[in-house]
Amino acid sequence: MSHIINYRLNQFSWAVAAILLLPLLFTQGMFFDGLTFASIARNLNDGIGQFWSPQYTPFVHQEYYEHPPFSFAIHSFYYRLFGDQPWVDRFYAYSLYGLSILMIRRIWAILIPSGHRGWIPQLLWTLTPTVLWVHQNNLLEAPLNAATLAVVWLLIEGTWKKNYLWSVLAGVLFFIALGIKGPVALFPLIVLPLVAVLFKEFRVNALISLSLMILSSSILFSFFYTYEPDFAKFFESYLNQQLLPSLRGQRGLESSAVLSVVELAKQLALPVLVLIILAWRRGMKYPLRRESILMFCIAICATVPFLFLHRQEQYYFMPSMAFWMLGFGMVYQQAPWPWGINRKWWVKYIALTNLFLWLTAVVLTLYFSKSPSRDKHTIKAYDSMVNDFNIKVIQVNNMNDFWKDNAIAARYNKLYLTENEQNYFLERLNKSVPEGVEIVKIFEEAELVLYKKATPN
Question: Rounded distance, CA 281 to CA 269, Å?
């Protein structure tokens, strides 16, 4: 009966993901970073900008060096396959969710004999708030997470099985991970040194795997830097315009490490609470094991560097969450469940719950597909500007006041905001405007007013 329970719980973990992710699939509106990344990817598909010098808009970041371009390039293939549809952005992120789950389960299957309990880290990870938010909003942490998980899996697989081809492939994926969001992908380098310390029987294998991984990724970097001028230009621009200023605290608003620790605690509240309940029901503590220590150490190495950054966002910690949840899951599974989970009614109860969750997810997906989920008034306003007035470029007084609007208009309408002189002018409701313009339309719910330069008599 135990294996049937685990089979149903595997289904349950996917049903939970469905109800949390699917309802937003066909809706418009995302966090503005996600809209920005989607616009860049769409431009690449349209032949606007180049791989090593992508473009955001004709007026903002004509050459985008804020992040490496690998994720944008992969995203652009989705447009090539499915067309320029709003749902493609979330479908891209959701497919990366599926890839991450596959990697989590592969790591679990290598390290834990009871591979049929792979639903434990999957469910914990799915219920982590920042994981949901990142995938719902198409942030770079989604492809970064999938890539770093794949690197860790290949390193462990190659080390355990003495298949060093996996280690070479891990170096290739490590280069791709760096090409998604830069140095934040460096933490997989700690995996094999930790393996060498914790698993003495694999020490030699681990050192060979690490050497091959570093060698293959270094060869790739050296090749591109030497023989690809555009890569060298991008690398130097990214280094000087984004990375070094960020490390020096010259980019963005300063954040608090204390608040980041609080946010991290919120993300880990569920697995800690579950561990407390299980230990209480069992009547004794759950001891740590080598495998869980390995995962916790990787998670710490992926988390701690962000606490020293000038700017911190809660979603920066997302790639570490998979390893936190793997660690907690490995602690849970080492002892029998503290209740009679082998009863037949559990099977029926979980099966009915799964069916209900899937039906609810489908109904909600169809219901929410009819309108934007967030910023709907702003989205409708820019739709009107394009469709009713045939506007392609519009002037604003201060782009900093319209940073998110610029992302919305560029992604969904190919409407571009600029501070340069244009026939149409846009301003917030109840804000003063320059002389010589007349009101064209007021979008009260979006708090926007569209003006046009008055024609002299």
Answer: 18
